[in-house]
Amino acid sequence: MEKMPEIDVLEKKNGYPFTDFEIQDFEKLQVGNTVEFVQDGKVFIGKIVEINSINDIKVLKEEADNGTFSYGVNATLSYEDIKHSS
Q1: CA angle, corner 64, sides to 70 and 68, nearest 5?
Q2: How far is CA 58 from the centre of its chain?
Q3: What does the pLDDT look like over 32-44, one tens digit per residue?
Q4: 81 is a domain residue
Q5: For 84, which of 4, 17, 20, 72 is 20 to 30 Å away at the CA?
Q6: Three-class SS of residue 62?
């Protein structure tokens, strides 16, 4: 079984370690939703357990030209639910 990646634990809630990740898919930004995110070039899957903050909307020029936008979001995921997607 592949060893889980080392992630920075900010604090423990309900006995589980939690950490922050940036999530780009704004429509999936709801507690309980499963999302994909990237850390250190690898794709992971985790369940959102808390929404911390929604940052300013980040718009890349290429995306703006195509009429699509990227949201920078901080959400907390339960480490227990994080799975590596190979």
Answers
A1: 50
A2: 16
A3: 777 766 656 666 6
A4: yes
A5: 72
A6: helix
